[in-house]
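Late entry, written up from scratch paper. The run itself happened at the end of the previous shift, but nothing got recorded in the book at the time, so transcribing now.
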Amino acid sequence: MSDVILESALTCPKCGHEKTEVMPTDACQYFYECESCHTLLEPLAGDCCVFCSFGTVACPPVQQDSGCCAGRGE
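Output as recorded:
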C-alpha cells in the first residue's frame, strides 16, 4: 500500500486561482472559499468533497480505496 498524500492543490473553476491545502483525514471538506474571487466551491455530482472535484489529489479515503468519506457512519 502506498503512502497517502495529504496535500492537494485546489483550483477555482471560476477564476483559476490555485492554492495548495492540507486535506483533513477525519472528515470530508464539503465547502471551500476561493481566497481570490470568494466563490464557494462545493463537490461536483458524484464526488464526496472539494478535493475530489477541484484538487490535484483525491481525498485520503478515496486514495486508500476505502470509498467516499461521506458514506462513513451509515
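The radius of gyration is 12 Å.
(Scratch paper discarded after transcription.)
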